[in-house]
Write the structure tokens for this entry.
Amino acid sequence: MNETKKLIQQITEGIQDKKGKNIVIADLSKIGDTICNYLVICQGNSPSQVTAIVESIREFTRKGANSKPFAIDGLRNAEWVAMDYSDILVHVFLPETRDFYNLEHLWADAKLTRIPDID
């Protein structure tokens, strides 16, 4: 398994560990002029859950893929937190903020993979 796929797996596990929902992985690698190759999008039901998901992702990627984000933005209000792993950008939203920005629709030409929720 290459490093990017392993990192995506660790990000996904970190999201699922804190019961993050509606995980979508957008593969942008075949689209020109993008700032990254993959987007991982998910949501939490409250600002505290969004924060917990971000911390879980941080921990899973550090332990499982020996990787740390270059930057994290949005933790102050935790409606939309972006994590920059260079080739992978992670977006953790509150549901209404995710609906408003609708990143999946913005990147509709990307290959979208939906990860089933763990209940």
User: Anything to note?
Assistant: Strands lie at 21-27, 38-43, 71-73, 80-84, 88-93, 111-115.
